[in-house]
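Sequence, structure tokens quoted for completeness.
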Amino acid sequence: MGSTNPLGDAASDGFILGPAGELPLTDECRHYEGKHEVPWDIQKYFAQRYSIFSWYDEGVCLTDDAWFGVTPEPVANAIAADLQGSDPSKTVLIDAFAGAGGNTIAFALSGRWQRIVAIERDAATLACAQNNANVYGVDPSMVTWVHGNSFEYMDALVNRPDQLHPMLRVDTSTTIVFASPPWGGPGYRSDDVFDLRTMQPYNLEQLHCAYRVMDHVLFLPRTSDIRQVAKLAPKGHKIPVVQYCMQGASKAMAAYIPASANTGNKAQRANGLVPLPSGPEQSDSDLGPSVEASTQPVQ
């Protein structure tokens, strides 16, 4: 294993954040082999482990908390495929909440990106993500792992890039942000329409404000209030929103939001963040004038 210092040499060089060394797996990084080993509250996720990571048996590790937030592999692959059609001038992707690596792995294996910056604030979870990327054969040179707070990173990137290690300085005009934040908060599981203002620990406004200077994808609960998402659309434009489904049931929605500066003409629809995937669409009367929606089935 490499250095256990999550900032590598960044701290000694005076940078607030730098690339993480290769972190060691700890006792929190678990590879459960049978249901009898699994805490009761994650047993249903363990039962779906091959839908979460199809190569689970090859040595995939997760912390107990990571089971709740990992994107199922077919959904992660579908999102990566949808971003294949994004503006080719965008060559860098920031995974703001890398978790155990599900989305990062899919993006890296898609071959679409020259660089991926994957940020995770929990060291044990980041160690799992690095391990899982190795299991899936991700080229280590493709991903720059960062142990830290993604909001601090984004703020520094936009306002004080000289405070970041040179490896973490990217051109925001050629970068897309993917954010799959925690979905905590009252009503997330029970409300027919989830109020994104109450999402915890980060609400819709906080997320959008952090990423607005770049094209960004927000991965949100399937019942999210689409009217709140529509308000993020630049004037005269629509935001593609995709419901990703497995076995006939929606798992989550993704909103593909252009940077605030992207206010070009209608040609941007074809050449912008992402083409709307084919599938049954809802009418504008169902969604409001600033949103287009599609249902994307995945295997």
